[in-house]
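PROTEIN ENTRY
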Amino acid sequence: MEHKALSSILRYFAVRDGRLLIGGRTCAEIAAEVGTPFYAYDLGVARKKYERLRAALPDEVEIHYAVKANPHPEIVRFFRDLGCGFDVASAGELRVVLDAGANPAAVGFAGPGKREFEIREACRAGIGSLNVESEAELELADRIAGEEGRRLRVAIRVNPAYELVGSGMKMGGGPKPFGIDQENVPRLLARFPEWPNLGFAGFHIFAGSQNLRAEAIVAAFEGALSAVASFLPHCPNAPELVNLGGGFGIPHYAADNELDIEAVGAGLGELLERHRPEMPRTRLVVETGRYLVGECGVYVCRVLYRKESRGQVFLVLDGGLHHNQAACGNFGQVIKRNFPICAPEKIGGEPVEEVNLVGPLCTPLDRLGSKVEMPRLDAGALVAVMVAGAYGFTASPRSFLGHPEPGEAVVEPPRRQGRQG
């Protein structure tokens, strides 16, 4: 069966003589420099994804990069240079963004459990918005801003009364630790005169992530803008910004089709025409991480052993769960399904056998792929797990069982390089 996700992702990469190129270099060349296993991020692919998203969205909509997807400093600087704002979820991410030279006014800080020192750092940095997620956080933020002698800009993160249908992870709707329930927002807006050290900046509404259905994302945006419209009579001042979240998915599994981001942009444009008279000077923001960097990353392992067990072939690799938890199905999957996997030195070769790809850990959870169709590979061959640019290196239990850390390489191809061979 055709793996639609793999076919879709490979269109963003160059291939030469049957070898996958990452930033113009083969996996074997990168492995010779950094060893295996390694993550490699092709900024040429990230640039293509950004340019496609930018072209699809209405011009007035700003793009924020969600740092939690991949906080590598070179990637953060890359998106800074493209003009993106940033969304962070910890003081650590905030420091990465500020160290990269980002404008603090273009930074939003979300997360349901911000600690006092994190709010204090955000206040001192003068970020664009602290996206508050509870009444208690508003009280704490006002106290800290007063102690710092500053006025802290805050946005209300709303737990909407709807869910993003078809999302991989639901971040809103129903009882949630994220945000303030939509029905309670008017009451809190009325309390802003009690918080003299807070400036009301606007709203943050993020219903869910990893959605491949354009109509569902547009419906979520419609729900968000309608909710904001209902809040307007209660706001202490006109909202300066509305962060609509994102939820833009990328194909991971065999049957996945690529998200029609152009349809998302067209739908959002129609919604803005309808709602613009209600909030003529409000800035609209979408935040996304996975859509921008997920497909630019490749996790490459080397075959240590080839073995057979009761009629099945196992390729034992030098990397696995401890480096790429998501690909092993332990990061949000209910049923384990294979990520796109290929032999990067044999692209386009006809599959000749079905293999199980397992890592070196002493646990049955350490399985990158089950019954994957691959050309024959022996010890020393390379295996590439695609869609490894988001929630890979930093989202995995790298200290588990004391194995070595994977390498990381950030590369960008020469301009005008195309797909060949």
Summary: The chain has two domains: 4-42+294-411, 103-288.
